[in-house]
DNA sequence: CCATCTCAATGGGGTATGGC
DNA sequence: GCCATACCCCATTGAGATGG
């Protein structure tokens, strides 16, 4: 493989594209013809296998698939064939698959089905999975049966297993000996699933071991199998499954395979909908989101290679696929744009946290979302909480922000005010929430710790801001400099960074101005004190 | 029960960039 | 210059949550 970013990782920047060898191209084409025709989860396994075979990165293969689709679509448009080109892929694949289905369904699969599943039209899929009307093909049953059976058996599987995409070998049903690669021939389960589907796109149920959320559910299944029965209520935050999903799974737990009957008519053969199984959707816990936001604040704001390390680290920390992280970033970017908040520039290199455990919030440690509050963009991150109050507050302060240069001390003072007020809101909301929660679970402890930390930081910031305001009002530059020198470490760093950026841009060391806005802020401050 | 909202997931368009 | 790759942006879908 000729990947520039691999040859020169240090200089890795955007758009260092791969150049596929003829062999890689051939393999890619082959996989495309065999069903790797979209970027959805339904093709994850194929993409993964293709990536393994071509020794390319998963995302590279995935991107190639997307571009390939576009290329074919544009060609089809030019030929006036419309969507026939793409559908031809489907149909040809599907019809061929239908023709070979009988032969592909090998004796070993049939044997596995009969051994593991009993009646041929029953399966172990969760009811919600079959609700998509797409998961009920007998073939899917074979696949999923194997997965679930394997998972129930895999006592060593836990959260750590999911840190990377599990290879198909790991999840392989013992009864099936898949040959790799499966595309050129051989009787693999995957080939069955792909070739049998006339529309192997959105509506096709993916081999579920590829879905991160499915893996989360599998983890849960493992948990409830290996441990004493748990109430499927509020989780510890380790799982990415929603309560509802857990309940569904728990309910499914009680359903024997014979109780769920699949739809023999296989509606996915006709459906063109994009309906997915419930477990497709990743559910981030509060702690996961908190972690993601920390990475975001550290510059994980781009999907490109610049943030590759951070994305990988975040994926590793949360035990999800990097694609999930990328999707989260993409959606967050969109959210920022919709709200008119400037997206922080991406920062390369690995992310460094003083302490990786979100449960331990030390005094010196930067407050989540606040640590880089003096950076112009992190303000948005800070205020982009999911509650409307903070967002509203951000809008209210737009005017103030617009008046500032972006790197002047006045801007920083403004930011500090906003930070202060937001902290106050957080504290207030936390207090409100705390009063309603029994102090017995992990999340409450987490909130307590965070509250304590926020209180301390709030107190420090408050006194600092007050002193700084006085100095600004008195135009006491010496005092200002003293105060800036005594800034808390993290804030100080950001301050220096801001000044440094300012110097780099050729600007002179700014003096604090904007007294009018400052006095307005002081009034706000007074109001807040009241 | 229904309407509404949030957000993960997905595909497609536009385009910058690098290799040939 | 052309083409392939990579990235960003956007619209859309649909599951789940929530409120009336």
UniProtKB/TrEMBL annotation:
Residues 13-76, 277-340 bind DNA. One of its GO terms (cellular component) is nucleus. The lineage of its organism: Eukaryota, Metazoa, Chordata, Craniata, Vertebrata. GO terms for molecular function: DNA-binding transcription factor activity, RNA polymerase II-specific; RNA polymerase II cis-regulatory region sequence-specific DNA binding. This is Highly divergent homeobox-like. Residues 224-244, 495-530 are annotated as: Disordered. Residues 11-75, 275-339 form the Homeobox domain. It is found in: Nucleus. Residues 518-530 have a biased composition (Acidic residues). PROSITE patterns: HOMEOBOX_2. Keywords: DNA-binding, Homeobox, Nucleus.
